[in-house]
Input
Amino acid sequence: MDAAIETDVAIVGAGPIGLFAVFELGLLDLKAHLVDILDRPGGQLTELYPEKPIYDIPGLPMVLGQELADRLMEQIKPFGAQFHLSQMASALEKLPDGRWKLSTDAGTEIVAKVIVIAAGGGSFVPKRPPIAGIEAYEGKSVYYAVRKMDAFKDKHVLIAGGGDSALDWTINLAPIAKSLTLVHHRDGFRAAQHSVNQMRALVDEGKVKFHVASVKALHGADGQLEAVTLADADKTERRHETDAFLPFFGLTIKLGPIAEFGLNLHENLIAVDTAKFESATPGVFAIGDINSYPGKLKLILSGFHEAALMAQAAFHICKPNEKLRFQYTTSSSSLQKKLGVA
Amino acid sequence: MKIVAIDRKGESHTLEGRDGWSVMEILRDAGLPIAAECGGACACATCHVYVEGGWFEKLPPRSDAEIDMLDMALAVEPNSRLSCQIVCKPELDGITLTIAPE
Output
């Protein structure tokens, strides 16, 4: 494993609030590293509603989710924050020297003077179908992602879903699987049209079987599937032999390991004060949807405010011997130099 | 108007709807366990409900966006709807729905 990264601030979550925190910290010369489970910055903006309009960002009468993420990335560019994407923040540990070590499930270790939790509702993880006992099969014969295609070579594979992932993997695994069956609750798909066409061609050639059906039960032993119960549109149930089952229903938000960080969560939220947005654990801040305080509104604009006040407090922890001089970007030549405009 | 919502334990809750608000907002504000992650933008399928007892037919049909988004919902049934897409109005007084499994 590489040596731990050392920085001023480690931010959990690269959504809009985590991104704007980089800006506010950067103006105070504090360096930041961000960790996010998604493969790109933006959080809910880019994962949930990239094409939906937002009307309550001050100064932007209308902005699309993706556009706001792009603009925030542009705004924080001068500060060179480092992103650790496709990684879940998995553990937080206090070091003897008073700093914190944030670890990820990919083995990254970040040692920072300040931790900022900007994790929204938690981590985006695959939706798990409500089928009794499915946990026992996960990672052995039920998969929510394909890591190695070879794992499905000469296997009977069952895919469920109607989005891009379901269709892409139907198309990609059909040539190597012994058989490939796709089930979906309707004979229609939200996936890209060319993928739908390709899938339908494979069905016509007899290389893929498609049924309007849903998976009701799993049968097997020791995590290895033998068959599933399929319910057809008319509710008729039948047994379908399969070696592997891949449900693709997109992502949902689960709190995840943050619950184990020792931060005294209440109803999945971190209580903070409203002067610094610091949790009950000194040096650990929480901003955006993950925090709670009297009067809290889950709005992006509230998170921006919280980021600004957090940064002031983080400065005093990171640079205890320096005096913080409050300045405006409009008039301060030193801030403008940091922003690369002067 | 009243909304009768059946939670995942089978318990029934009678809620006061508000004209023009989405059923999702009423369920959420009543503290019922509905994630509604995207806040009502028809973008996440986590406000999935089953509309019961003839009420399904009385609703305006699903939009293309809702039909598409239901592809990301779990355990979809013929009476599945996304509650963020059902708007409260007096004609729906008594509408009964069950919150879909997580």
About this structure: Chain A has a mean pLDDT of 96.
